[in-house]
């Protein structure tokens, strides 16, 4: 409703406000991780890098298309990658079990990067993506 009101009153396109809401929702989830792990540094680092990534996404061809229901994934996938990188980089390994956990996190990171690359490539290759309606 806020997006429609901003579109009608201020002329801000609904797609833009919808994307901003999706980005804020992802950042709120990462902020909650910081509250859940107050003594850890990785959630704060992940939050600020994810904020930078989300802002930079608005300057890519990925947003030069009509908004869709899957718009949340446009921000959630890179944010998940950023948070996983921050977690893997700060994860201390002192025994075999922790090494296995770190290996699982690295594998999850690789899967997330591949999935994100496939989804973003499909968005960019879509011939209807450049036709803003």
Report on this structure.
The protein is mainly alpha-helical and 133 residues long. It has one domain. The chain contains five helices and no strands. Helix 1 packs across helix 2 and helix 3 runs antiparallel to helix 4. The two termini are 20 Å apart. The mean pLDDT is 86.
Brief account:
The chain contains 5 helices and no strands. With 133 residues, it is mainly alpha-helical.
| Count of discrete structural domains | 1
> What's the assembly state of these chains?
single chain
By DSSP, the count of extended strands is: 0
The count of helical stretches stands at: 5
Give the biggest beta sheet.
none
Briefly note the structural class of the backbone.
mainly alpha
Rg calculated over all Cα atoms: 17 Å
Give the CA-CA distance, first to last residue: 20 Å
List low-confidence stretches: none
Q: Kindly state the percentage of residues in helix.
A: over 70%
β-strand percent reads under 5%
* N-to-C SSE string, H for helix and E for strand: HHHHH
Q: Average pLDDT value?
A: 86
Shape: flat
């Amino acid at each position: 409703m806020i997006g429609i009101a901003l579109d009608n009153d201020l002329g801000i396109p609904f797609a833009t406000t919808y994307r901003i809401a999706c980005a804020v929702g992802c950042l709120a989830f990462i902020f909650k991780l910081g509250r859940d792990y107050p003594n850890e540094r990785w959630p704060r680092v992940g939050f600020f890098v994810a904020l930078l990534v989300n802002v930079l996404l608005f300057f890519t061809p990925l947003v030069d298309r009509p908004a869709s229901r899957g718009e949340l994934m446009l921000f959630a996938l890179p944010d998940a990658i950023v948070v996983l990188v921050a977690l893997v980089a700060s994860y201390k390994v002192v025994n075999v079990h922790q090494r296995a956990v770190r290996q699982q996190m690295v594998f999850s990171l690789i899967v997330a990067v591949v999935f994100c690359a496939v989804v973003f490539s499909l968005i960019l290759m879509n011939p209807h993506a450049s036709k803003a309606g």
